[in-house]
Design a protein that fits this description.
Elements (H helix, E strand, L loop, with lengths): L2 H10 L4 H12 L5 H13 L2 H29 L1 H25 L3 H9 L7 H12 L4 H32 L4 H19 L23 H28 L6 H21 L6 H15 L1 H9 L3 H11 L3 H15 L5 H29 L2 H4 L1 H14 L19
């Protein structure tokens, strides 16, 4: 049996792992559907991409504010008690958005309804918390589990937009949003029903500090912000580049190649046993990411070919998953005991904030200079992440506890 197969087979041989993973994937797929579905639905009925973009940006900002509070409640009271009610509250917001669009309600109601979806729990963080609980004392298996979760992220964000566009285009404008909400509720119900794998709620001590104040966490969150800017800028700039060449419909396929490269690299990375500590690997991962991100810039500026760019994005995406896997490993190691969901949700919040900043910066450069010049934005963002990481003693001493899967 190949080592890669045996590592993943070992994970899913754990009782309950397959069931919670099925629910996890079902609930995670809509995360890649909602934004595209909302844009298509609103722009198609209100004839305004500006309005659609503003509504989605408002929802993103609301999620960045609310998600850490939702995660804190999950850590305090348990996944089953909080995640499903929070999901149902978010679905009510989604249904309100569909109703407002369908009935021609005033524009402000769209902002309010989409902001109400911000209570959606971070399903990826909850899944990683389950693996951390199940695999305590086995850092190799936890590395494989984190790699699988990162590959799942890439897969869902690769398939989600395509599914959303297909549903909205072939059925009716609201089909993507409604299908996404159905998958979210069903997946979350299946996930939270698996009580045997749920991490136990640990008593909160008054001495427990917030995750964002733990040693090394501020730097990690700053790096997440910079990496989010890479993703946000790359998406906007690639769409602009394809549109300039009259191939706007191909942008989704080109971006999917980048996600596909990252997904494959994540699965391969999980099948290997990386040497050294995560702290030592992290700068090298970020350096590889910064170097490979120069490929799309070179492809766009030297050839102007969308086909060559697609190949460059495929290769450049291969550094993304290993970097994110190592990042989440460090977040797990440094988050105070009993607050793991909150710590990982803060990392995701940093990524979301960076995506918003990167989208704005990439769009500005693409409009005022050129789409080709816009590919310098992701390179700059990755370089910034590398500079933050290489600052002297930037991570401090890890806060080792059962979340980390090992001790020194």
């Amino acid at each position: 049996m190949p080592p890669s197969t045996s590592r993943y087979r070992h994970l899913f041989a754990i009782p309950g792992a397959r069931a919670f993973t099925a629910g996890n994937l079902m609930a995670r797929l809509p995360m890649g559907m909602f934004s595209v579905s909302a844009v298509v639905m609103i722009a198609g009925t209100r004839d305004s991409y500006a309005l659609a973009g503003a509504v989605v940006a408002t929802g993103l900002a609301a999620t960045a504010l609310v998600a850490p509070w939702t995660a804190r409640l999950i850590d305090r009271y348990g996944q089953a008690r909080i995640a499903l009610p929070a999901t149902l509250a978010a679905v009510l917001g989604g249904l309100a958005l569909v109703l407002c669009v369908r009935t021609g309600a005033p524009d402000w109601t769209l902002f309010a309804a989409y902001a109400a979806t911000a209570t959606t729990p971070n399903i990826g963080g909850m899944a990683r918390a389950r693996w951390a609980h199940l695999l305590k004392g086995d850092p190799g298996a936890l590395h494989t589990a984190n790699s699988f979760e990162q590959a799942a992220d890439e897969l869902c964000f690769m398939l989600g937009p395509v599914l959303a566009a297909l549903l909205c285009g072939t059925l009716f404008p609201e089909a993507g949003t409604l299908t996404g909400m159905l998958l979210l509720v069903a997946g979350m119900a299946l996930f939270t029903a698996q009580r045997s794998t749920e991490p136990p709620v640990r008593p909160r001590t008054t001495a427990t500090q917030p995750p964002y104040r733990a040693p090394g966490m501020p730097a990690l969150l700053a790096v997440c912000l910079a990496m989010g800017a890479v993703f946000g800028a790359m998406e906007v700039v690639t769409i602009a580049f394809a549109d300039d060449r009259g191939h706007s419909t191909a942008a989704g396929v080109v971006l999917a190649l980048q996600a596909g490269g990252s997904c494959a690299a994540g699965l391969l990375y999980g099948a290997l046993t990386p040497g050294g500590s995560a702290e030592r690997r992290y700068p090298w991962c970020l350096a590889a990411m910064a170097v490979l991100l120069t490929l799309p810039l070179l492809a766009a500026s030297l050839t102007g070919s969308l086909l060559v760019l697609a190949g460059a994005l495929l290769v450049s995406g291969m550094a993304t998953a290993p970097t994110m896997i190592t990042n989440m490993t460090l977040v797990q190691q440094r988050t105070p005991e009993g607050r793991l969901n909150e710590g990982m949700t803060l990392a995701v919040t940093g990524l979301l904030g960076g995506i918003a900043l990167g989208s704005a910066a990439g769009g500005w450069v693409a409009e005022h200079a050129s789409a080709t010049a816009g590919y310098a934005v992701p390179v700059t963002a990755a370089g910034t992440a590398l500079l933050i990481t290489n600052a002297r003693n930037v991570f401090g001493r890890p806060n080792l506890h059962p979340n980390s899967g090992h001790s020194h």
